[in-house]
Amino acid sequence: MAIELKDHQSNKSAFDDVALLTQAMVRIDSSSPDMGSVPGPGETKLARFIVQWLQDHDIETHWIETTPGRPSVVGIVRGSGGGKSLMFNGHTDTVTLSGYDGDALSGEIVEDKLYGRGSADMKSGLAASMITLLRAQTMNLLGDVIFTAVSDEEYGSIGTEDVIAAGWSADAAIVAEPTVMDIIVAHKGFVIFEVDIFGVASHGSRPDLGVDAICKAGHFLVELERLGKRLQNGPMPTGSPEADLSSVHAGIIAGGEEVSSYPARCTISIDRRITAAETPESAREELIVLLDSLTATVPDFRYEVRTIISRPPHAIALDHPFIEMVVKHATTAMGRSPVIRGERYWTDMALLAAAGIPGVIWGARGFGLHSKTEWVELESVRQLLDSFVAIAGDLCRQPKA
Questions:
Q1: Phi, psi of 302 (to 5 degrees)
Q2: Are 396 and 80 in contact (CB under 8 A)?
Q3: Residue-range domains of the chain with CATH
Q4: pLDDT band at 16 (very low <50, low <70, confident <90, very high)
Q5: pLDDT exceeds 70 at position 1
Q6: Burial class (CB in 10 A: 0-12, 13-18, 19+), 251
Q7: What value, to the nearest 5°, has the Cα angle with vertex 392 and ends 390 and 394?
Q8: Rounded mean pLDDT of the chain?
Q9: pTM of the full predicted structure?
Q10: Beta strands in 188-313 (DSSP E)
């Protein structure tokens, strides 16, 4: 059962514990309305919960909703002035609950592991960021501590785009995605393409009149698989396969109206991951070269390509002083030096960096992301919270240059 904070006003302090706050948010279904066979309700209910929590703790709160039903929330603890600011960013949407093994909204805690959809990805990161704001109120900081709880990261990143467009910025940022406590300094970008392969509709008994778009698409799929293998055998200028090797796969295929007819069109949705050496344009051209070669060799092969969405890769220089600061406080909290590496998946950090906000991706030890069972190790969330507070105290006491 989803928990509403307004139903627990007399026990408000219970939600000042990072585990219980994570649990409360996991019990709120915020699965994306744009993903899965059963669309989710979106982020509104969780956004209202976050607003209520922030307001109950006297934290300045802003609601941003340029796309109806896809709200983002900004909370800010303002410093006394003249200091550097720090932004914590986390997404409120999750992937679908469909296919989850058991109760996706249980928030059950077993042996210091918290289970449920979004427990790792990434309501634990949200909870650590929120309580960092609470702690910042009594830290006598010069600069601001900003928390952005954004919508739609799992698909189009409407929320972080809205936050940037609204003018929110900072001197550094941490995106609290689950990273098993490794510090992520680079990741790939992506482009989503749709490719239409055309046929000619006719009765299934008339092969002399019809052209089967689905069969023609088969030629393309074979070549797409070959392209994917070539990309995985490409050069690695930094020696990191996570950041250097691009990839491509067909995620969705749809075609035909009924089995007794030749299909006039087959549409293939393609996920192309791009490295810092590539652009959406170069990836599109690569696809067109492949398709043109099929047009020249396969009879009656016709196609159309559309770019649906693209997002840039991210990288921060390894000698950036913010990395040194994060590593220092992470080491203190964990009792060991963190791993610094690149990552395969995309995050909103790329949008923040493009807006002039340097930062890293760093979050708890979580497992089963987008899978049938998801959980987060709560001790890592506590370590993350301690580090977040220490980083805020360090950076936001520094005067602006």
A1: -135, 150
A2: no
A3: 5-187+313-395 (3.40.630.10), 189-311 (3.30.70.360)
A4: confident
A5: no
A6: exposed
A7: 70
A8: 94
A9: 0.87
A10: 189-198, 202-203, 247-255, 261-262, 265-274, 302-311
